[in-house]
Structures are given as C-alpha cells and as structure tokens.
C-alpha cells in the first residue's frame, strides 16, 4: 500500500504544481494579493509531497521490494546498504525524481526565505518554478514512472550498474543537480522580471545569492564527478571532454558569467539586459544537458529515433521553456531602460571581458558537443570531437582570461587605471616567474611552455592575495590597523580572492599533470619491477577475493624509493555476478599532492599481466582548486551573516532577514 | 479501503493548505517599490561603512552615493505613484479550481497507471513466508547455493526450472554445476546441451555437441541425444550423414514414439532440393518456424549475405553481421576469412576498422598479419 501511496502523492505533486503555476500569476495580473498568497504554501507543500514520494521510493529500494519494476531493474538484495540508497538515483527514473525533489526544494526555499522580496516578484518567481515542476512531474509520470509494479514479483533484482556502485555516485549527482537546478531559480527570477517589465539593481541583489549557491554546488559537483571518473574508470584521465561532462560544464561557464554580470548590475545598474539573458541561457544549458544525457541521443542518434518518447518529451520541454523565455525576452528587452555608463577600462569593463570570453567558451564547447550529433543525424557519419579540438579552441580562449583575472578586482568601478593595477600586480607576476624558475631548476626538463603555465597559476594565486593585501592597506597604514581592516573586509572580498586563488591552484594542477605525468604500460610477472615518479614498484602476485556481490582479482605491488619500502598498492579487477560485468578498481597512493596510479589490464598467456602505471604530479591541485572555488562561493554567500556581529554594522531591522550576498 | 481513506485525507489536506490564503480576505499587498527602496538604503549603509573602514576613497564614495541616492529617489517616486493593490476579491473560480483540480487530476492520472490493490512486497517478508511464490522459492534456493556451492542436488533441482522460465544462461550454469558436483549422466549432459542450444537460438554449438557426444558415449541409445547430434550434422551441411542418422533414429524408435513426426519432418526437408537464398517472405516466415528450422534459415541467410558482400564490399554493417553469424554457426575459418576481406575494405586505422578489430577481439578470432 505504501508504494501506491507514494505513486499517488507524486500525482498530487503535479496537481499542486499546476495550481502553483496558474493562481499566483493570475494574482499578479489582476493585482489580487489573495491569489498571489497561494504561491508560498503551494511551493512548500509541493516540496513536502515530493519528499514523501521520494522517501517511499527509497524505502522500496532499501527493503528490496522487487514488485516495483524500477527496483527490480536497478537493485540487488545482496548490495551493500549505501548502494541501495544511492541506487535510487543511479538510474533514469530515479535521477528524474532527484531532479524533481531538488527543484521543489529550491521553490520551497524561495517561498520560505524570500520574505524580503516584493510580493509580486515572489508570486511570479514561484509561478515560473511551478511551470518547471509541472513539466518535469508530468514527464516522470508519463514516460519515466518509477512506481510501476510487477505482479508476480521477481525473486531477485538485476543489480545496479557496477560502475555506479561507488561512493562517488552517492555524492556526485545530488551536488550536480543542486547546481543545475539551482540555476532554475535565476531563470524564474529573469522570467518573473520580464513578465512584470521591471528590472533594476535591487533585482540583481536578490538573484545573486541563488546564482552563488547554484554555482558553488555545480563547481563541487563537476570537481567530484571528475575525480570519480578518474579513479573509477581506470583510464587515469581526469577530464575526457565527453558530451556528458560538457553538458555540466556549459552551465558552469554561463553561470560563472552570470555571477559576474549580476555583480555589475547590482553595483552600477548596467548590463541589465545582458544579465537577464545570461540567466535564461544558463538554465537553458542545464536543460539541454538534461536532454542530452537523459534522451539517449548521445549513445546513438538512431537508438533515439527508434524509441523517441522520452527524448521528444524532453525536447518539447526544451523548446517550450527556452523558446518561450527567449521570445518573452525579445518582446520585453527593448522596453528595458539602459543603466549606468562606464569606461572600457574599469571594473565593469573587466567583467564584460570576462563575460565575453566565458560565453564564447561555452559556445565553443556547445559546438564541439552538438556537431557530431547534427552530422550523424544529417549524413549518418559518426565522428567524435575529442580533446584536440577542445584543447586548441577552449585552451586558447582561457589564456587571456586567466591573465586578466587578477586585474578585475584591482580596477575601480566606472573608470579604472590599467597601468596602476598592473604596477600593483608586479609583485604577483614576480612571484609566479620566480616559483616557475625554481621548479625548472629543481625538476628540469619538460617544455618551456609548461613553466609559463605554472607561472600563470602562481601569478593568479599571488594576485588574489595581492587584492586582499591592498584592500587591507598594508604598507599604507600601521600593521594593527591593516590587520583590523583585513578582518573587517566583507565576506565577498574573501570570496572573490578565494575563488580566484582556487582557479590558480587548478591551473597549476592541470599544467603539471598534462606536461609532467609519466605513463608506463608493461607486462609484469611476479618479481618484475617498474619505475615511476622516482618510485620502484615490484609486482608480488595476484590474489582472488569475493565481495558481497562481486568476485575480484587483485594484484599486489610493493612501492619503494631508494631501496627502502615506502608503501604497497592493491589494484583489482572485479566481476559483478548479477550483470557479469567487469570493472577496474585502480590502485592509487597519494604522496603530498601527487599520486601513483596503478591499473590492471588483461592477463597474458604466459602468466604475466598487463599493468599500467602512471605518475600524476600535483594532480590533486585540480580538485583542490575546485574545492577552494566552492569555498569562495560559500564565503560570499554567508557574507551578511558574518557581518551582522561586526561592530561597524549599522542596525537595519528589516534587512537583517535578507538572505543575500552583500556587495 | 485504508488506502482510499489515506488518499482522501491527503488530498483534502493539500486542498486545505492551498485554499487557506484564498479564504483570508481583506489583506492588501505591499507596494513592490518599498522593497526596492529598502535595498538601496541598505547599499547606502554599506557604502558609509566601507568609507569609514577606509576601503573606498572619499571622492569615489561621494560619486557612488549620488548614484545610489538617484535610484532611491526614483524608487520612492514610483512607490508614491503606484496605487496599493486593491482589496482582495472573492476568488470563487480559483477556489473551484483547487477543489476540483486536485482530486480530478490526482485520481485520473493515478488510476491510469497505478495498481491500488497491489500491496508492498519487501523481500525480507517474502523470504520469511514464501507460500507458493515460485520466484521467491528460486531466490531462496539461490541464496542457499551461494553459501553451499557444492550442493549438487540443489543445482539439479534448479537447472530445469530455469530452463522452463527462460533463464537460459542460469540454466546452463546450473547444469554445469550439477555435473561438476554429482558427475555426468546422459540426463544432465542432455539438459546442459539443450540449455546451450536454446541460448544460441537453436544452433547446436561446439560446446553443446561435445556434451551430446559425451552423453552418447554413456548411453548410445538415448533418442534425444541422437536427435540433437543429427541436427548438428544437418546444420553443418553434412546432409547425407544427417539424413542417415535421422533414419536410423526412426528405425530404432517404437512406432508410437512422440518424437517421430519431428524427425520425419527433418528427413523430408533433407530429401527436398537445396533451398536457395531466403527472400524477405522467408525471413518473415522465420518467426513461425521451430528452432531447427530457424537455424537452417540462418545458414541460408548467411550464404545470401556472403554473396551480396562479394558484389558490394562497401557494407560495414554487413561485414559485422556475417562475422558474428559465422562464429555463432561455429565456422571460425570462414569468420577469419571474412575479417581479412573486411579489413581490406576498412583499414584497421579507420573508425570502422577499429570496430572490426574490437569485434574480433570479443569473439576471439585471430587477426592474421596483425591489424595493429
């Protein structure tokens, strides 16, 4: 009975969303506060109902209720408990439920914490959220219903895809979706503003915290996904320019641009139209990503054409929301008043430069992702656009942007002085070059360009610190005043510095790994050795093992440096019994920020086994940088709370409740 | 019954929550512009604080203050101009929408896809009380065998049940385990061979033939074994030998044996002329054929495809299909030759060539003079 109740409640979610999408909008059109007031309770109850429905599905997974088709297809009674939980969203139907629960969660947040918003704006925002919720709830119920039953019920499930039986799956999709779906709030704000025809600096201030939160989650989600692919797939790569990866990367690029342009809009009321467009584009790219991943169009255009129900449904959602939003934009944008003026060399100018490059980069990635699909659909020819294309186009685009990053925060609003900013960055440039030179002296070898890449990374890190130091007035005022000033800086200043610093850390990781990593593919027999990253690995032999739902063969390696045993590595290959599917569990050992990565290949006839050994210098910097960036976003987001206790803070009774990122 | 009561209560609760704001009359909305002004006042405060802390120069602060003040004044002016929202009207339409839409949409959609009478079936409860739930009995036996893989009787019990339920791979494995633990017998070997033949869509594969031959060695007069071995000969194209084997089987069988009609049909088929390449009607008819007939059809189709590929070798899909078919029919030399020819058309470096090599790898066909 409980299963059927979960199913019915899911239908109620749809009905509630329809009411939420219609009545508040009618309220703003008729200027009727009672109708507008329906929005918050509808959003909150929609969220609670979704939680119930999702909970029931989870219960079915945990109790291995194979009378539920979805559970039978994606679970197994012998699976460890954590994978029974994460298995809920490890399949198409469940992941759409996750999407829905996060969407309604954000709606409920707007309803509960948006009390400082003008009522009309809040009603419209929630109505737009209601449309999106209704569209996805209908999609789930009609094409991807997780509550369909089997009678008689099978005795055992088909198991979760072994690649997904990993802690990574427990964390990665929720983070990613919190990012993807978080941008729906920005989208709803943009549409609400367009419907009402009012967009001003205050709007940007209300949107920014949502953009910041979504961006932080998306950053963490992408970094997590990259690390997961790195250790689980056993290919030793950390980014493959795979369409699925690109699908999450494009909203990130557009979202980063949105974050920066909203800043300009809030401070100077400039770039209004552009910011609204970016808000629409960012969520559109999220939707496009969902379409690419969920419709099956990536596996094969033909497979998509033979069973198009789901794909066509998502495509319809895509066309209605993106097309509708852009039409509304085209209709309303000319009536919006342009905002403040600024000189090309100014903080605003720098942010425009940032926006231009980021959107071009997003367009490049979009082209590289969609071109093979279009080509296959038109001519039937199958090509893959891989790393060379992206490295050349995307990489080239990024260099000027990365060089300019430290300049942005140092330029004044309205009219800046590039020369003065450059002079202040002398130290940072020096730091970058000196450290790169030291690395060259200590390490040697490698292409010259690599050292410039490293210098770039260190320069960005030093530039971020420079910004804080200058703001604190070090050198101009006494040390104690400078310290007081530093701690008095608004959280968003720290947020900016942290995010830019993290970007520098990631750049260092990327440059170090791409240019200095070593790869050895060798056939090993017990007793043979291979050298990597200054370590000597000795292969000791294989061992058979058995897990709860798999059997495995593990190879044991002893790692030594200078003849002294340092540690050992187990690297295994598993076969999951239910699906008879093999997976690679790479053996990874961390030394500081670098890693030794051992992956087993095929056994040879003469008793040996093919082993791949990588030395990945500074690879952890790539994800560490991502975490620092996310921390920057979080610090910015909690800015206001941090400042409430500060002594200089003026008393502002009403605004204290405002959930926002100040500055 | 309880289910429907809960459904009614839930629907009513949600409807009540949505109706509440509609029923609360007489409230008026605030003026949006007042909220704008709040934000700008906040910005002014922040500016003053930054100036006092020395984060911004006095001249810049004055400029910024003037700009924010302009926005503040504009917002205030707008606030005065715009009339506050009118008093709440009665919203009978909206109330009706809530009262009607929730149950109507809810029940309408649910009843079309839901199974209201089906109770939840958590596995633990089913295992504790299996009743005559065949799937659970199988699952219980499977769990038992995971812990006691040497329980031959258990494997022997499961093997034919799997075969009847279409779990062919599991069935083959269960027969294999039975033979491993309890030793070979004609019954077990034939069952194993049947599972393998069913897995290969009616083709007597090499493994199946070996099992059958072993069975025949144990019991030379088992009609089932003899039939499948004759079928193997027929599928290999050794028509005369197959016909002789079938005829010998008929001779040794009692006159009322149930398998006679099947055997006689095969004899009749072998006496007729060699069939030509199958047409599309033949392919459509294949669905109606029995397993043996289908295997014959496959062999015929492979011949036809080979002919087409000779005329028009630029057919990548065709090569992939024919290599796979040869392996299924256990004609590995033919598969290797086809691969060689295909690789000439699609060089190993090309995308298609790589797929061919991958296929060869998958099917364990050797690639002469190395693609890589």
Q: Sheet with the most strands of chain A?
A: 5 strands, antiparallel
Could you name the CATH class of the domain at 135-220 in chain B?
Mainly Alpha
Q: Label the CATH architecture of the domain at 135-220 in chain B.
A: Alpha Horseshoe
Number of helices of chain B: 18
Uncertain ranges of chain B: 274-287
* Molecular shape of chain B: elongated
Instruction: List SSEs of chain B in N-to-C order.
Output: HHHHHHHHHHHHHHHHHH
Can you summarize the main beta sheet of chain B? Answer: none
Q: Give the helix/strand class of chain B.
A: mainly alpha
Mean pLDDT of chain B: 79
Helix content of chain B: over 70%
Share of helical residues of chain A: 55-70%
Low-confidence parts of chain A: 641-663
Protein name (chain A): Cytochrome c-type biogenesis protein CcmF
Membrane topology (chain A): Multi-pass membrane protein
Function (chain A): Required for the biogenesis of c-type cytochromes. Possible subunit of a heme lyase.
InterPro entries (chain A): CcmF_C (IPR032523), Cyt_c_assembly (IPR002541), Cyt_c_biogenesis (IPR003567), Cyt_c_biogenesis_CcmF (IPR003568)
Write the SSE topology.
The complex is a heterodimer of chains A (663) and B (372).
Chain A lengths: L1 H29 L2 H4 L2 H24 L6 H6 L6 H6 L5 H22 L5 H25 L23 H30 L4 H32 L10 H26 L3 H23 L6 H6 L2 H24 L14 H33 L7 H18 L2 H4 L7 H7 L1 H18 L4 H25 L6 H10 L2 H26 L1 E7 L4 E4 L2 E12 L3 E12 L2 E13 L4 E5 L1 E5 L2 E10 L5 E8 L3 H18 L1 H6 L19
Antiparallel strand pairs in A: 1-9, 2-3, 3-4, 4-5, 5-6, 7-8, 8-9
Chain B lengths: L1 H22 L8 H21 L5 H24 L10 H22 L9 H6 L5 H14 L4 H13 L3 H15 L3 H14 L6 H13 L4 H13 L3 H14 L7 H12 L8 H7 L4 H21 L4 H13 L3 H14 L5 H13 L9
Main location (chain B): other
Protein name (chain B): Cytochrome c-type biogenesis protein CcmH
Organism (chain B): Mycoplana dimorpha
């Amino acid at each position: 009975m409980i299963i059927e109740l979960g199913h019915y409640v899911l239908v109620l979610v749809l009905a509630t969303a329809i009411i939420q999408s219609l009545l508040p909008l009618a309220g703003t059109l008729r200027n009727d506060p009672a109708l507008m007031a329906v929005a918050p309770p509808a959003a909150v109850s929609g969220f609670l109902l979704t939680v119930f429905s999702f909970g029931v599905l989870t219960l079915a997974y945990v109790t291995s209720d194979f009378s539920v088709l979805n559970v039978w297809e994606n679970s197994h009674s012998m699976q460890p408990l954590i994978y029974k939980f994460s298995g809920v969203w490890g399949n198409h139907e469940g992941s759409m439920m996750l999407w829905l629960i996060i969407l309604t969660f954000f709606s409920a947040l707007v309803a509960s914490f948006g009390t400082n918003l003008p009522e009309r704006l809040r009603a419209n925002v929630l109505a737009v959220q209601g449309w999106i919720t209704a569209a996805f709830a209908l999609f789930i119920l009609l094409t991807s219903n997780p509550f369909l039953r089997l009678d008689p019920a099978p005795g055992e499930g088909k198991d979760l895809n072994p690649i997904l039986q990993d802690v990574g799956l427990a964390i990665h999709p929720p983070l990613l979706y919190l990012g993807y779906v978080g941008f729906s709030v920005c989208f709803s704000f943009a549409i609400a503003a367009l419907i009402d025809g009012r967009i001003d600096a205050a709007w940007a201030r209300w949107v920014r915290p949502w953009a910041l939160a979504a961006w932080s989650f998306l950053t963490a989600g992408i970094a997590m996904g990259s690390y997961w692919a790195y250790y689980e797939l056993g290919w030793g790569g950390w980014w493959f320019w795979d369409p699925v990866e690109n699908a999450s990367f494009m909203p990130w690029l557009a979202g980063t641009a949105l974050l920066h342009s909203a800043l300009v809009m809030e401070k100077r009321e400039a770039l209004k139209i552009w910011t609204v467009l970016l808000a629409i584009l960012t969520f559109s790219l999220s939707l496009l990503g969902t379409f690419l991943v969920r419709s099956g169009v990536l596996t094969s255009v033909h497979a998509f054409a033979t069973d198009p129900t789901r794909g066509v449904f998502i495509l319809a959602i895509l066309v209605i929301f993106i097309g509708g939003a852009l039409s509304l934009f085209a209709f309303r944008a000319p009536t919006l008043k342009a905002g403040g003026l600024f000189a090309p060399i100014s903080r605003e100018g720098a942010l425009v430069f940032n926006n231009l490059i980021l959107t071009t980069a997003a367009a490049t990635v979009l082209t590289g992702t969609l071109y093979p699909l279009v080509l296959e659909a038109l001519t039937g020819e199958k090509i893959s656009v891989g790393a060379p294309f992206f490295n050349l186009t995307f990489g080239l685009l990024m260099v000027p942007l990365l060089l300019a990053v430290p300049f942005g925060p140092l330029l004044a609003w309205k009219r800046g002085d590039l020369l003065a900013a450059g002079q202040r960055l002398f130290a940072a440039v020096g730091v970058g070059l000196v450290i790169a030179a030291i690395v060259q002296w200590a390490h040697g070898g490698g292409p010259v360009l690599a050292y410039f890449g490293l210098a770039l990374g260190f320069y960005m890190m030093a530039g971020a610190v420079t910004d804080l130091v200058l703001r604190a007035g070090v050198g101009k005022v006494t040390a104690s005043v400078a310290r007081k000033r530093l701690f008095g800086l608004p959280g968003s200043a720290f947020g900016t510095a942290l995010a830019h610093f993290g970007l520098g850390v990631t750049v260092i990781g990327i440059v170090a790994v791409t240019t200095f990593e070593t790869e050895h593919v060798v056939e090993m027999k017990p007793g043979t050795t291979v050298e990597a990253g200054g370590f000597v690995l000795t292969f000791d032999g294989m061992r058979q093992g058995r897990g709860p739902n798999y059997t495995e063969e593990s190879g044991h390696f002893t790692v030594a440096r200078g003849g002294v045993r340092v540690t050992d590595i187990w690297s295994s290959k598993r076969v999951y019994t239910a699906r008879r599917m093999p997976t690679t569990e790479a053996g990874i050992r961390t030394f500081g920020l670098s890693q030794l990565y051992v992956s087993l290949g095929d056994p040879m006839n003469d008793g040996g086994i093919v082993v791949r050994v990588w030395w990945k210098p500074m690879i952890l910097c790539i994800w560490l940088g991502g975490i620092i960036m996310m921390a920057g976003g979080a610090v910015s987001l909690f800015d206001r709370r941090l400042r409430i206790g500060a002594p200089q803070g003026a008393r502002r009774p009403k605004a204290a409740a405002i959930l926002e990122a100040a500055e | 019954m309880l289910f429907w009561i809960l459904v009614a209560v839930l629907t009513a609760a949600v409807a009540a929550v949505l109706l509440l704001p509609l029923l609360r009359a007489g409230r008026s909305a605030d003026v949006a512009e007042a909220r704008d002004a709040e934000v700008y006042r906040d910005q002014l405060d922040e500016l003053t604080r930054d100036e006092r802390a020395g984060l911004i120069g006095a001249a810049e602060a004055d400029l910024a203050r003037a700009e924010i003040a302009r926005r503040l004044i504009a917002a205030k002016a707008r606030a005065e101009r715009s009339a506050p929202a009118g008093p709440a009207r009665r919203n009978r339409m909206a109330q009706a929408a809530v009262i009607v839409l929730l149950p109507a949409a809810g029940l309408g959609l649910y009843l079309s896809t839901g199974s209201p009478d089906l109770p939840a079936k958590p596995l633990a409860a089913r295992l504790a009380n299996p009743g005559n739930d065949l799937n659970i009995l199988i699952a219980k036996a499977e769990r038992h065998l995971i812990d006691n893989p040497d329980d031959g009787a258990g494997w022997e019990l499961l093997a034919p049940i799997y075969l009847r339920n279409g779990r062919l791979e599991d069935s083959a494995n269960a027969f294999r385990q039975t033979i491993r633990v309890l030793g070979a017998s004609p019954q077990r070997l034939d069952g194993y061979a049947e599972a393998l033949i069913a897995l290969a869509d009616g083709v007597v594969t090499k493994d199946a033939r070996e099992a059958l031959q072993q069975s025949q060695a144990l019991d030379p007069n088992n009609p089932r074994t003899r039939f499948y071995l004759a079928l193997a000969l027929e599928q290999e194209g050794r028509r005369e030998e197959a016909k002789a084997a079938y005829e010998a089987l008929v001779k040794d069988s009692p006159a009322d044996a149930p398998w006679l009609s099947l055997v006689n049909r095969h004899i009749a088929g072998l006496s007729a002329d060699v069939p030509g390449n199958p047409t599309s009607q033949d392919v459509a008819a294949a669905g109606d054929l029995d397993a043996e007939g289908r295997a014959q059809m496959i062999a015929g189709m492979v011949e036809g495809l080979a002919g087409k590929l000779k005329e028009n070798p630029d057919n990548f899909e065709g090569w992939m299909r024919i290599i796979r078919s040869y392996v299924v029919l256990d004609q590995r030399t033919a598969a290797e030759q086809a691969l060689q020819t295909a690789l000439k058309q699609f060089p190993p470096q090309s995308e298609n060539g790589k797929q061919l090599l991958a296929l060869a790898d998958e099917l364990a066909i050797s690639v002469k003079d190395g693609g890589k």
